[in-house]
């Protein structure tokens, strides 16, 4: 099977679905190389190269560069979704959701509920997230916990190129607003991705690795950190199972509970800040519904409760490491 | 003179690059006999057992349980009493060098290729030395050529081998449904074989693939030198049709695991990678329709729709049937349904997948059946 990058996998999904469904449109900053500029269009396919080639294939009516005003174009996308289009809006950095949160939280998320179930909002908001690229506090956060908290939104965080393509196709075909989060440091990762179309259902966790001693639940980029930790642990004779929830809303509670019941020792790894987070949410779920199966405290390995530092050494220290995950797993493995 | 033998991580299947040691069945210092089950290794598909290739004492375990190592890595050392610890240490050290030197080449996967047939393609994986005869592997419903993970490489040591993705499976194009679908599948497979196989072929087929193989053997008796069918359909009416419908319907991991467990006598051998791999196949657009079309020609409300009894009875070549005694999908047929010219081996403790569950027994049986062609 073909090896493709995370970026290519997303680009394929966008190409495929725009060709299949004329209602799919895109809008965002710099998707085609800059609105209003006279220079070369589609020179680099967006800030991260994901939208490369779409302008040539589908034209400026369907691939729209917008002014730097998230409140305006996210609101426009939500409205377009109500009229029957299937817009994909790109927020270049998820941190900028701050300026358009009303459109997301008070408008798009609530249409289905406030209009008596008669309105559909098939909107996808793609955004990059995460630390590691020396981009500073305002361009590196992991905000999935905020979106997961809001009813009416679906939240998708792919960790592999294969999942990126299948989950994005599912997101575009979904009739509810979907927040689709892409970690900047994953764009160049490579994996097997089929050429054809496929969708991955939401609330379907992936078992990334079988193991029997410790269960590591990891989100987004942290799945690869957990995998590195699992290799270290294996050398010490500790067999780690890894589960990637893939979507935090809806959450595949059944799979998380099944494996907790089977293994009894759990480490949750998340790049988000630790308070009121997906990690604490999953921890509460397991403590509530699988308490009798737990053989040790649930361990959380997360970023600290601080903004992402800009100093490279501090940014590196901020991001959960494989060593920290392995240490947490080891601390509960023998209990 | 002392003898020192390496126990290495084997290469099961063309895409296997590493394996995880899940269990050692002998301790350091134990005497082991040639053929004795020595350790369990988990691959991307299922867990399989490595047998001792030499008799002696398991002097050292190099890869502990839980370790993942590349194909060819030294897992342990078997030697006789005469070998000193210094000699064994030197052997292990030399092995590390050898792996570094040749590891990449050994793990380098043989790539499958797509053969154009009619309007689509048939995906084939060829290994072994080109010769005047080839062993051709045909998988069952819902499988693909990786069904032969533990078999193709073993047979390739002595023969040219060709594993085929049937239409609508793996990387082969699907065909439209209809009552003549089996005939069109046979045509597509024959066209692929024309392109890649020598004049004489030995057919090894599993389950639904058995019906395809039987038709090819009956229509090309001069070409087919032997036939080995593993739990084939078509020898009786009884089968678990729910397996087909449930397999197609399962869109998520949990229900699919419940379906796949019916294939194996010991369901704990199924890995999450096997479930995920099957889901990835089933998620591809067009696959559920292609599988439904094939399920429709395998069985209906009254049971199995195909019969290969007559096709087999007319064959002059050796015909071997292999069954697991705990097969929950296609049960071991009644004596009355077995053609007189077919030999039957029943493997105790195996389910519908003996080629995976009892790989070395099946490999030996395949080899013997091939040799019995005179």
Widest beta sheet: strand line-up of chain A: 3-2-4-5-7-6-12
Biggest interface pair, counts: A-B, 27 and 22 residues
Computed over alpha carbons, the radius of gyration of chain A is 20 Å
Structural class from helices and strands of chain A? alpha/beta
Order of helices and strands of chain B: EEEEEEEEHEEEHEHEHEHHHHEEHEEHH
Largest sheet of chain B: 8 strands, mixed
Taking pLDDT < 50 over at least 5 consecutive residues as the criterion, the unreliable ranges of chain B are 98-108
Our measurement of the CA-to-CA distance between the termini of chain B, rounded to an integer number of angstroms, reads 42 Å
Biggest sheet of chain A: strands, sense, closure? Answer: 7 strands, mixed
- Roughly what is the average pLDDT of chain A, rounded to an integer? 95
N-C termini distance of chain A: 42 Å
């Amino acid at each position: 099977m073909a090896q493709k990058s995370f970026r290519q996998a997303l680009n394929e999904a966008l190409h495929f679905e725009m060709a299949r469904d004329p209602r799919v449109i895109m809008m965002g900053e710099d998707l085609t190389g800059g609105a209003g500029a006279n220079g070369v269009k589609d020179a680099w396919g967006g800030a991260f190269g994901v939208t490369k080639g779409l302008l040539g294939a589908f034209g400026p009516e369907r691939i729209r560069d917008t002014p730097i005003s998230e409140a305006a174009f996210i609101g426009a996308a939500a409205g377009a979704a109500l009229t029957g289009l299937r817009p994909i809006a790109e927020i270049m950095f998820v941190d900028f959701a701050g300026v358009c949160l009303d459109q997301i939280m008070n408008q798009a998320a609530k249409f289905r509920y406030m209009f008596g179930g008669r309105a559909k909002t098939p909107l996808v908001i793609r955004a990059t997230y995460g630390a590691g690229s020396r981009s500073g506090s305002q361009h590196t956060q992991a905000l999935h916990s905020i979106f997961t908290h809001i009813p009416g939104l679906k939240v998708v965080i792919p960790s592999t190129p294969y999942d990126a393509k299948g989950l994005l196709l599912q997101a575009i075909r979904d009739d509810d607003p979907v927040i689709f989060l892409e970690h900047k440091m994953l764009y160049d990762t490579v994996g097997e991705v089929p050429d054809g179309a496929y969708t991955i259902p939401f609330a379907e966790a992936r078992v990334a690795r079988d193991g029997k001693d410790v269960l590591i639940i990891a989100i987004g980029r942290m799945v690869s950190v957990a995998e590195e930790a699992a290799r270290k642990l294996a050398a010490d004779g500790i067999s780690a199972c890894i589960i990637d929830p893939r979507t935090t809303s809806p959450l595949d509670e059944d799979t998380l509970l099944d494996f907790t019941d089977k293994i009894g020792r759990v480490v949750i790894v998340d790049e988000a800040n630790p308070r009121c987070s997906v990690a604490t949410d999953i921890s509460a779920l397991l403590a509530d519904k699988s308490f009798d199966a737990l053989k040790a405290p649930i361990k959380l390995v997360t970023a600290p409760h601080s903004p992402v530092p800009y100093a490279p050494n501090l940014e590196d220290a901020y991001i959960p490491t494989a060593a920290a995950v392995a240490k947490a797993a080891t601390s509960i493995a023998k209990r | 003179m002392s003898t020192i033998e390496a126990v290495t991580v084997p290469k099961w299947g063309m895409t296997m690059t590493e394996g995880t040691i899940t269990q050692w069945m002998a301790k350091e210092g134990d005497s082991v006999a040639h053929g004795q089950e020595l350790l369990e290794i988990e691959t991307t598909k299922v867990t399989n057992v490595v047998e001792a290739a030499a008799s002696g004492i398991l002097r050292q375990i190099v890869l502990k349980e839980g370790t993942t190592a590349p194909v060819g890595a030294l897992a342990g050392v078997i030697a006789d009493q005469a070998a000193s610890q210094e000699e064994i240490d030197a052997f292990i050290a030399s092995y590390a060098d050898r792996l570094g030197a040749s590891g990449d080449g050994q793990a380098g996967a043989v790539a499958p290729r797509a053969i154009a047939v009619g309007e689509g393609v048939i995906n084939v994986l060829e290994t072994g030395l080109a010769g005047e005869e080839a062993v051709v592997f045909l998988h069952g419903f819902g499988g693909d050529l990786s069904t032969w993970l533990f078999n193709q490489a073993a047979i390739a040591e002595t023969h040219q081998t060709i594993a085929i993705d049937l239409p609508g499976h793996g990387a082969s194009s699907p065909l439209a449904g209809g009552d003549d679908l089996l005939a069109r599948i046979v045509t597509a497979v024959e066209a692929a074989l024309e392109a890649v196989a020598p004049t004489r072929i030995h057919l090894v087929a599993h389950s639904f693939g058995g019906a395809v193989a039987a038709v090819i053997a009956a229509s090309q008796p001069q070409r087919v030198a032997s036939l080995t069918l593993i739990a084939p359909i078509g020898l009786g009416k009884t089968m678990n049709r729910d397996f087909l419908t449930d397999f197609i319907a399962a869109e998520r991991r949990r229900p699919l695991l419940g379906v796949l467990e019916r294939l194996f006598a010991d369901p704990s051998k199924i890995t999450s990678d096997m479930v995920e791999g099957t889901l990835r196949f089933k998620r591809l657009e067009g696959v559920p329709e292609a599988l439904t079309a094939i399920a429709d020609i395998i069985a209906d409300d009254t049971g199995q729709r195909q019969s290969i009894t007559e096709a087999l009875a007319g064959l002059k070549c050796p015909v071997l049937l292999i069954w697991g005694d705990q097969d929950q999908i296609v049960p071991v047929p009644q004596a009355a349904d077995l053609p007189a010219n077919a030999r039957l081996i029943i493997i105790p403790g195996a389910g519908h997948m003996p080629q995976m569950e009892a790989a070395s027994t099946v490999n030996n049986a395949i080899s013997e059946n091939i040799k019995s062609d005179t």
